[in-house]
Amino acid sequence: MSDFYSGYTRLKFDRPVPRVLRIALNTPTKLNLMDSELHREVGDIWKDVERDDTVSAVILTGNDKAFSAGGDLKRHKELPDFDQRMRSMNEARNIVYNMINFPKPIVTAIRGWAVGAGLACALLGDITIAAKNANLRDGHAKLGVAAGDHAAMIWPLLCGMAKTKYYLLLCETITGEEAERIGLVSMAVDESELDDKALDIASRLAQSSPTAMRLIKSSMNNWFRQAGPVFDNSLALEFLSFFGPDYKEGRAAVLEKRPANYYPESQG
Questions:
Q1: Which residue ranges form the domains of the chain, and what is each CATH number?
Q2: pLDDT tens digits, one per residue of 178-188
Q3: Distance between CA atoms of 20 and 244, rounded to whole angstroms?
């Protein structure tokens, strides 16, 4: 494997066919939770793959249990301080903009849970393939914070404003099959067919004109870029709300597996 990738600890790499690089999100946690190392690496990796002239297409996937079920709420006993939050916000921005600006085609293969930042990575692929039994969810509202890591930018373009608000406000889980029906992903297949389908599509893309791939992506992703101010605002609001009382209660409720109480009797 190229020295481009030797420093990564939370990403696994292989080359299943010539000119296709497969990148697997991989953490030693249940449901492939996105720890701080993975959060940083999945934003940084795209610059290195862009410089690798032996790669024409990328498959982004998870492990055999999950794509990634998002951030690990148990990671910190105390809430991170301001500087940590600002670093994390910059990493979240890098994930979104570096995937959008990456000039080579990305195929995402989604199995198991894809939540939060994991869902952002899953949906930012150019061709997104979900197992029919996959579970996709944007859970920000359940934590008492704004949906800021990608959804305000791309969900309305993919599935429309009405569906976007329904799923973001209620934190409803979407199966891969339902995600295909509403246009959130490119296609849904049986889980047993997921890896082969992703490889078939990535192989075809890798044999295509690199100029065409780069220019079509550049043009089409202007739809995302013009929504950049929407994303920047939502990201800032998300990180601002991490310092509020609703996040403290929402996070505690999730960890304690109980309903959140945002309206205690003492507040009327």
A1: 3-256 (3.90.226.10)
A2: 999 999 999 99
A3: 44
